Write a sequence for this structure.
């Protein structure tokens, strides 16, 4: 299978949430999300089993999550990526490597989480190198906004973790502050709330690139507090 073998699921006029061939298409610029049922992981079109589910937002070409899914095959994995050209790349890896525990969401991270996931259904959350949008005028486009941190608190199981990785120190400080201000989380690392190395974390396309360029990387981790 080549990435181009995955065809667009619907025309712009006919767009609606749709699962097809291991991809859940969640349309943008769409107002009817509330009309559709929550995703059922036991559905044979999704995972067809009750194994714990981990999610990676902003998966890009899927390098990190494909390796994770292969290494931790007792877990289910969801890749969330907004760009169809990148979803295609993840999809072709799933097909060619026959990976049955990885499912793809083609859509926006927050829309998917808010409208299609039940509360406290996710075992682990990872956000690897989301676009930092460094210019002040673009700041509102950053994913690690307090609203998204709140969304993640709704879907995470109690006591389970959310991990965020970036090469952008300003973005890291901002994200850590969003977690600190949300009483539903407990930090895993002492002040300043992040570290520079995590053993056996795995490699994404951007992680490899930034390491080659000698950039410093920043990792933070917060656990969902047991109640609230
Ligand atoms: C800098 S790339 C990082 C890709 C990958 N995680 C890596 O480390 O190589 C950021 C990715 O996030 C995706 N993205 C940006 N905003 C998103 C959103 N709101 N929901 C889902 N994906 C998003 C982009 O399309 C892009 O593929």
């Amino acid at each position: 299978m080549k990435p181009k073998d995955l065809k667009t699921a619907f025309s712009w006029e006919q767009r609606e949430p749709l699962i097809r061939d291991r991809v859940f298409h969640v349309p943008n610029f769409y107002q009817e999300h509330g009309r559709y049922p929550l995703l059922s992981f036991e559905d044979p079109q999704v995972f067809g089993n009750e194994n714990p589910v981990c999610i990676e937002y902003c998966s890009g070409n899927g390098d990190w999550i494909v390796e994770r899914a292969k290494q931790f095959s007792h877990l289910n994995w969801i890749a969330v990526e907004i760009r169809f050209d990148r979803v295609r790349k993840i999809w072709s890896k799933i097909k060619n490597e026959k990976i049955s525990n990885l499912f793809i969401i083609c859509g926006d991270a927050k829309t998917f989480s808010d409208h299609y996931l039940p509360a406290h259904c996710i075992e682990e959350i990872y956000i690897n190198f989301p676009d930092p949008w460094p210019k002040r005028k673009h700041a509102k486009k950053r994913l690690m906004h307090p609203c998204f941190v709140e969304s993640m608190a709704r879907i995470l199981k109690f006591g389970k973790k959310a991990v965020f990785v970036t090469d952008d120190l300003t973005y890291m400080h901002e994200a850590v502050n969003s977690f600190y201000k949300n009483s539903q989380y407990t930090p895993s690392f002492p002040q300043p709330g992040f570290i520079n190395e995590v053993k056996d974390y795995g490699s994404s396309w951007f992680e490899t690139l930034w390491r080659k360029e000698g950039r410093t990387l920043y990792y933070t981790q917060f656990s969902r507090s047991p109640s609230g």
About this structure: Residues 57-60, 80-83, 86, 108-109, 128-131, 143, 204-207 surround S-adenosylmethionine (CB under 6 Å).
